[in-house]
Amino acid sequence: MEYRVKDLSLAKEGERRIDWAEAHMPVLVALRKKYGETKPLKGIRVTGCLHVTKETGVLVRTLKAAGAEITWCGCNPLSTQDDVAASLAKHEGIGVFASRGVSTKEYYDDIHSAMKLNPHVTIDDGADLTVEMHKAMEKGRDGDIAGPVYGGTEETTTGVIRLRAMQKAGRLLYPIISVNDAETKHDFDNVYGTGQSALDGIIRATNVLLSGKSVVVAGYGHVGKGIARRAAGLGANVTVTEVEPIAALKAKLDGYSVATMNEAASVGDIFITTTGCKDVIVSDDIANMKDGAILANAGHFNVEISIPDLEKQSTGHKEVNQHTMQYDLKNGSRVYLIGEGRLVNLAAAEGHPSEVMDMSFANQFLAVLKLAASKGTMKPIVYDIDKAQDQDIAMAKLQSMGVAIDVLTPEQQTYLEGFAEGT
Ligand SMILES: NC(=O)c1ccc[n+]([C@@H]2O[C@H](COP(=O)([O-])OP(=O)(O)OC[C@H]3O[C@@H](n4cnc5c(N)ncnc54)[C@H](O)[C@@H]3O)[C@@H](O)[C@H]2O)c1
């Protein structure tokens, strides 16, 4: 199959790293064994637009084992692991169009190349593929989407927000299963996965000591909560900024300082944005920062720290570490931007640990099976993951960890479902 990767000679290293991830993804591997025999995806064309990491490699192997024909592209210009892309092309025979550090044009060219498969099912992270599919379906652009498209899946909060907006505007043309809305996804991947790997990215890029530092976390949702807790665990003093009063109150009662970004700007040593919103850190904030402040983003798009404002405030910039750019401000201070303001855990580290992606990608895989089996009979709306699927994945994960839990007796079940008095 046609592919476009940076360096095919990295394939062996990529294979080794996918094997490592696989050893830490027992739920997904069990699904592969189960469906590898019946091959429910035989004849199904799947196009994925998801960070090309070693964990994604395990998902791709699983889809292939279930019989799917696959093309793949990255969902962020700076997140592709080139060795993994090479391995998927060389060892798995997948039509991969992805390299790290592509321009915006190359990024969309890769999406359009992957779309040429004319997929029955799309897998997305951030909704760029789904939006491009819709443009092609609406306007006949690229002329390659002959259909039928049975549906798609969406991995992240920002993508689900975009797709629900498309549904509201009456623009959604095929059903989407929101994998992000599975509890076994957002309560683990976003919290523990990004919580750990975002700090990993900052540490790899700077090797600064977090203990004793003032860390400002913008947004106290799933991702923000995970990062704040881990930063505090490493001895940082955490300040949270929020726009939503309940989230702000939770942060306050969890023991953090809560402030506006305007107040926090002059206090922070390290700033981490996690909001999914734009212009969270802008000109005035940057001008008020301490000399040496470090800026990183863990939200999906590189719009949270305003790069145009950072450039406006600066006289110049230079790379001082791999993944770390020093901006010299007009007021004489320096601030450091990690990973171009793109998701720091993927730009400067390896993304989420395999153990949490095990659950996220088990949800992805089962959602693809459901869409394939529907053969286009589902309505063009955004669906949640079935509660039963969520619980099955949690139980399988517990079992893989050797953890048993209690089971309700029939009497307890009746008690919980009824309105008997407590005596
Ligand atoms: N880096 C990764 O690997 C990774 C993983 C999962 C999710 N994400 C992305 O991270 C972002 C957050 O995801 P989440 O699941 O935590 O979402 P969430 O909805 O749970 O939390 C976002 C929080 O940010 C707050 N917020 C919004 N605008 C704000 C602003 N201007 N200032 C301060 N706070 C603001 C909201 O009130 C909310 O509490 C999304 O873009 C998501 O796609 C990234």
Word description of this protein:
It is a single chain. The termini are far apart. The protein is globular. The chain has 423 residues and is an alpha/beta fold. Strand 12 (314-321) and strand 13 form a beta hairpin. The chain folds into two domains: 8-185 and 352-400, Rossmann fold (3-Layer(aba) Sandwich), CATH 3.40.50.1480; 192-347, Rossmann fold (3-Layer(aba) Sandwich). The strands form two sheets. An eight-stranded mixed beta sheet has the order 9-8-7-10-11-14-13-12. The protein has a seven-stranded parallel beta sheet with strand order 3-2-1-4-5-6-15, with helices on both faces. 45% of the residues lie in helices and 16% in strands. Helix 1 crosses helix 4 (82-90) and helix 3 (54-65) packs parallel to helix 15 (354-374). The chain has helices at 11-22, 26-38, 54-65, 82-90, 104-115, 128-139, 157-168, 183-206, 222-233, 245-253, 261-264, 283-288, 307-312, 344-347, 354-374, 387-400, 410-417, and strands at 45-49, 69-73, 95-97, 121-124, 151-154, 176-178, 214-218, 237-241, 257-258, 270-273, 293-297, 314-321, 324-329, 334-338, 382-384. The longest helix is centred in the middle third of the chain and has 24 residues, at 183-206. The site of nicotinamide-adenine-dinucleotide has 28 residues, from helix 7, helix 8 and helix 9.
